[in-house]
Amino acid sequence: MNLFKRNRSGAPSCAVQTADGYSSSRPFFVAGERSDYMERRLYCALRDRVPLIGGALDKIVRLTGSFEVRCGSRSAENALNDFLRGVKVGANGRGIYSFISSYLSQLLTCGTAVGEIVPYGDKSGIAALYNSNLDDVELRRGDDPLTLRIFSRRSGSAVPVRNPSLILVSALNPSPGEIYGVSVLRGLPFVSDILMKIFHSIGENWERVGNVRFAVSCPSDGSNARERANQIARQWSLAMGDKEHAKDFVSVGDVSIKVIGADNQILDSEVPVRQILEQMVAKLSVPPFLLGLSWSSTERMASQQCDILTSELEWYRHLLEPVIEKICRVFFRMNGYDERMEIVWSNINLQDETQLAQARLWNAQALETELRNAEVRSDEQRRNNQEGLPR
Questions:
Q1: Dihedral in degrees, nearest 10, Cα atoms 192, 197, 203, 207
Q2: Whole-prediction pTM value?
Q3: pLDDT tens-digit series, residues 14-33
């Protein structure tokens, strides 16, 4: 399939239905929307400010892996693969993986993801895929609980989209009766706030320790105490003011210099920080060693953690499959191909290659033994039949 045919390059694409909102300024809110908007902003800020959360979500997106779509027709499969590799995504993206990565990232962070299939103006094919901003889209329940209505926010009002069949919507673990999903970060703002307070306190304490404050004191004889204190203050300021060259401070008499706060000890933050990080890791289901946390763990424990992460990634793949199938089916309909297809995901490889090879060897040996036993039983049955003995 040639994506740069003459009739395609000249055909204008349809306007994006879920764009051109007012998410940049957000001057006002519609009824019942403010809490959802503030919750999304909280999760996005949490992902940006806590490196462990952002790194965990990025690794989940990358470890989800790649896929290929197989069709019964070779021509349809080649055309679809060309389309998936070169489809335009947003303003500067290219390829289905660019769209799916952004879609899954939004789904994990906000609990709900919305995308759009943008066709050409003459409906001759798909021009692009678009990752919608949730601030520009509003989801409502239809006339019955099984119907979903999609609205686009334009100039402060919610307008129903013209062609909802081109809109892609996914919800992550929605509560019963709800249409919006639940973010994987729900429950983390509380522990994250404690973690940020600890880091902020550590930063302030180290700023005080790094930029040392001194207390200069001398006994007072009563006659010229003020004059002597001013003289010591001037000389001390001159000695400490030159940052490039070291200067000595010389004084006559009993003068003592102490570091302010030197007798106080900074609280040990290793234990509380680790406890908070353990809560985050338990929520995100990502093994600690993948996040750069050098916690002591046995080889068996690491293998079990990888198995748990694999099951999580399989679940996210199940959520993405309807989205991929819908994109492919729209492509087939617009190009007149049969819609039968199969999505085949790549293997999730989180284990050691030696262990995987050993497991394949054991499976092959077990299969060989089973075939040999079946052959022996077949030979015995053949001999019994020839001798006329009962089975």
A1: 170
A2: 0.70
A3: 677 777 654 444 444 444 45
